[in-house]
Amino acid sequence: MAQILIRNLDEAVVERLKQRARRRHRSLQGEVTEILERAVRTDASRFLEQAAALRRQLAGRHFTDSGELIAEDRAR
Predict the structure, then answer these.
(1) Calpha distance 11→24 (Å, rounded)
(2) DSSP one-letter code for 76
(3) pTM surpassing 0.85?
(4) Alpha-carbon torsion, ordered 66, 69, 71, 72, to 10 deg
(5) What is the pLDDT along the chain (76 residues), one digit of tens a residue?
(6) The pLDDT of residue 23
(7) 35-66 burial code (b ≥16 CB/10 A, e <16)
C-alpha cells in the first residue's frame, strides 16, 4: 500500500482528528484513512443528480419566506 506524509499540519487539527478517532475506536491513522477514502468515494455527479431530482419534485410549489414568518411571530 502507498503512504502519504502530510507536513505542517496544525496541532489543533491533529488533536481534533485524535479525538474523532477515539470516539470511533480507531487509531489516528485509521481515522485519517477512512476520511480520505470516504472523500474520494463521494461522487459529485451523483449529488448533482439527486439535487436536480429534488428540484423537479418541488417544482411549482409555493414556499413562504421564512423572514416573513419570523417577523409575524415577533409582532405577536
Answers:
(1) 20
(2) -
(3) no
(4) 170
(5) 899 999 999 999 999 999 999 999 999 999 999 999 988 887 788 889 999 999 999 999 988 888 988 998 999 8
(6) 97
(7) eeeeeeeeeeeeeeeeeeeeeeeeeeeeeeee
Task: Show the cell assigned to 13.
Answer: 487539527
Q: Which pLDDT value is given to residue 69? A: 87
Q: Within a 10 A sphere around the Cβ of 26, how many other Cβ atoms? A: 14
Between CA 48 and CA 50 the distance in angstroms is 5
Name the amino acid, one letter, at 48: L
In a 13 Å sphere around the CA of 15, the CA atoms on its Cβ side amount to 3
Alpha helices (H) along 1-76: 11-23, 28-41, 44-58, 66-75
**What's the chain's length in residues?**
76
All cell numbers assigned to 76: 405577536
Which amino acid type is present at position 44? A
